[in-house]
Amino acid sequence: MKQSLIKFCLVFAAVMLLAVPQVSQAKELKGDLEIFSWWAGDEGPALQALIGIYKGQNPKVKVIDATVTGGSGVNAKAVLKTRMLGGEPPDSFQVHAGQELIGTWVKADRMEDLTFLFKEQGWMDAFPKGLVKLIGTDKGIWSVPVNIHRSNVMWYIPANLKKWGVEAPKSWDDFLKIAPKLQKQGIVPLALAQNWTANHLWESVALASLGADNWEALWSGKLKFNSPEVIKAWELFGKVLQYTNKDAASLSWQQATDMVIDGRAAFNIMGDWAAGYMVTTKKMAPGKDFGWAASPDTAGEFMFLADSFGLPKGAPHRDNAIAWLKVLGSKEGSDTFNPLKGSISARKDTDLSKYNGYLQSAAKDFGKDRVVASLAHGAAANETFMGGFAQVMEMFLKTKNAKATAMACQQLADKAKIGK
Ligand code: GAL
User: Fold this and answer.
1) What does DSSP say about strands 265-269 and 188-191: parallel, antiparallel, or unpaired?
2) Tens digit of pLDDT for each residue in 310-345?
3) Strands (E), 14-81
4) 407: how many CB neighbours lie within 10 A of its CB?
5) Which residues pair with 269 in a beta bridge?
6) C-alpha span between 280 and 341 (Å, rounded)
């Protein structure tokens, strides 16, 4: 009995010795991996941390971190389009979960189905069902989500508000009351940056004005963009814009955040990558050096978006890209990336002890709030609508004509087949 056990152990050990190197040799990846995103400069540290994990696992792969600067992907998305249509896809690219992915690249049949990876990695259960639905169709699952960002957040510096004798406004009515007081002290009430940040502000104002049900009705085609409710939202937006800085068009979103940090402006409405910027780049402490609140009239509502990465058909280094996607979807990857990025994990098993006070509060809100999709960051509408909406916004910024803008929006919605 004893002898046969020893014999068994020896045979087992020999088999293992032969088998293990073969397995690891077969798995060793080489060559390049080109990752395409807009997370350059100040937006880069979280991505760099993920690349660090990847390199640790795949030391022989040369990672090409191809970034095109420009918040919310304004420039990157144009470059990506040219490359995809020209038959030169990167190995993996950043894309927002929702219509930016499904209504654009999936519809054009340019993505690989990742269902196999979701099953193999246990991601069907690791990610919330609603999120998997957002990145999937009846034909497959099309990207790997790396985070959950919140769009409707108002940022401020508590000590400055105290100095100026104001509090963070809970409603737009409150804001419109305190804004002139701030202006009298030479302070810009609300810091704004280039065009896409106006879209970003608009979605918070529109959510406030319309309410969550009507916001969703817009995207399901049940509420027209030229309805009186939406015209009212544009009118409110026009009033709010009176209290923003005149040089907005020439500023990056970080520069608008800087205006708040430096005490030139009182508030800024921006996604919680602003928390990432203030904590990771500016080394500020949440709750002490900076404060936050749901954007006016949206407490209890969480306007959400998620960054994700997909695998385009014809990716030159497919295996390397799949290994990259595995890092993105892993618990380790997620809990390394998100605390630096200013987002919460898209996974259900996240370790919240790794997250700062702001992010813990965001995670709590995400668990209890009404969650609605962001327009400005690809969740609610396809790229046809988004591209056109940027022009509609230009028109409104110039004319401030709520009715004409609302009409133009409805024409655009028809063209983009919103709700169809
Ligand atoms: C969003 C993106 C965020 C952040 C932001 C500013 O669209 O989802 O991760 O990068 O743009 O560029």
Assistant:
1) parallel
2) 999 999 999 999 999 999 999 999 999 999 999 999
3) 31-37, 61-67
4) 16
5) 154
6) 8
Place of tokens 């709590």: 364
156 strand-pairing partners: 291
Measure 225 CA to ligand 1 centroid, in angstroms.
25
Question: Position of tokens 């985070």?
Answer: 147
Atom of ligand 1 at shortest distance to CA of 273? 4
Q: Residues enclosing ligand 1, CB less than 6 A?
A: 38-39, 43, 71-73, 96, 149, 253, 271, 273, 305, 307, 377
Mean pLDDT, residues 348-364 taken together: 98
Closest by Cα among 84, 90, 83 to 325: 90
Is the pTM here over 0.85, yes or no?
yes
Judged against a pLDDT cut of 60, whether residue 26 lies above it is answered with no
Atom 11, ligand 1: residue with shortest CA distance: 72
Tokens matching residue 315: 């990716």
Indicate the pLDDT class of residue 290, thresholds 50, 70 and 90. very high
Helix (H) or strand (E) holding 352: none
- Residue pair 356/283 in contact (Cβ under 8 Å)? The answer is no
Say which residue the tokens 């999120």 belong to.
131
Q: Report the phi/psi class of residue 270: left, alpha or beta, with left for phi > 0 and alpha for psi in -120 to 50.
A: beta
Structure tokens at 303: 């306007």
Q: pLDDT at position 25, please? A: 43
Q: How far apart are CA 392 and CA 390, in angstroms?
A: 5
Cα(319)–Cα(220) distance, integer angstroms: 38
Q: Which amino acid is at 196?
A: W
